[in-house]
Specification:
Number of domains: 1
CATH superfamily: Aldolase class I
Number of helices: 12
Strand content: 15-25%
CATH architecture: Alpha-Beta Barrel
Structural class: alpha/beta
Number of strands: 12
Length: about 300
């Protein structure tokens, strides 16, 4: 049985503190957490703020801990963006630590930017892998572009109708489709984990059969582990050093001890399944069998 691939979503959870120069140090600490826990990948978000931030939002006021005075929303987005210098450092650091990385892309500029970086693909080769976030799966132009430019595409399905998801799959030809609820945090009674089974069922109806993943934003770990039992072969959770840190995604993220428990729980479930169907007498049972049955 192939192991579930586990993504530690760093996202923007490095963006806190009194100085933006501290961000890369925060990134490395989060990478270390993912490595210690045993994650397969870490993931970030990449965007061009000038094109991604709506015009109506750009001039809105924003208070951030690293600026003494109020700034604009556009400047805030530029402040927290990682650029080539930082991603070169991230690429080197991940290679040193033995973990692969990729990003969610929010625009064509970011797709072009990420084509410089190759990561380990699910097939073991190296190439360009990106994810399309739920917010953008109706942008068929972007989805078609990543299909043409990238070696592996992943998409998330939050806040979308099935018809929108079907169109996104046709356009992007993804290798993995993630079930997700886009509420942060997501209530357990709205997770609808059975949708994982539905996605697995319809996968064969498309030109390229895809794997099914689960990207969780709920409190706790139990439901995420359950997703791997139901059939998700990829698991993604946001990770943080401390859920009380500044930032919109911190509260719905998993802290280091929780991430270690999550990865261990998924691996324990994998090892407990056995990989075979019919009941057999196991070597560890033979002594008890002789004791109780005499043979």
């Amino acid at each position: 049985m192939e192991k579930v691939k586990i993504i530690g979503e760093i996202g923007l959870n490095y963006a806190y503190g009194k100085d933006t120069s501290l961000f890369i140090g925060n990134v490395k600490r989060l990478i270390d957490v993912a490595v210690i826990a045993g994650c397969s990948y870490v993931k970030f978000q990449k965007r061009n703020p000038d094109s991604c931030v709506p015009e109506a939002e750009k001039s809105k006021p924003k208070l951030v801990p690293w600026r003494k005075e109020e700034t604009t929303y556009l400047q805030y987005k530029k402040d927290i963006e990682l650029w080539e210098k930082e991603y070169d450092e991230i690429d080197d650091y991940c290679r040193e630590k033995g973990i692969s990385w990729f990003v969610s892309v929010w625009d064509k500029d970011s797709v072009d930017f990420m084509r410089k970086y190759h990561t380990q693909l699910p097939n073991g080769k190296h190439g360009v892998m990106v994810k399309i976030p739920s917010a953008l799966i109706t942008d068929l132009d972007l989805l078609t572009y990543v299909n043409e430019c990238c070696d592996e595409v992943l998409i998330s399905t939050g806040m979308s109708k099935q018809s929108e998801i079907d169109s996104a799959i046709v356009a992007a030809q993804p290798g993995v489709v993630f079930h997700t609820n886009s509420t942060y945090p997501s209530p357990n009674h709205e997770l609808n984990l059975d949708y994982i089974t539905y996605l697995k069922h319809i996968s064969s109806e498309f030109d390229r059969k895809f794997e099914v993943g689960y990207s969780g934003h709920e409190f706790g770990l139990t439901t995420t582990v359950a997703a791997s039992v139901i059939g998700a072969t990829w698991i993604e959770r946001h990770i943080t050093l401390d859920r009380t840190l500044w930032g919109s995604d911190q509260m719905a993220s998993v802290e280091p001890q929780g991430l270690i428990k999550l990865v261990k729980s998924i691996r324990d479930v994998e090892s407990s399944r056995g990989g075979y169907g019919a009941r057999e007498v196991l070597p560890s049972e033979m002594q008890k069998r002789k004791t109780l049955r005499g043979k």
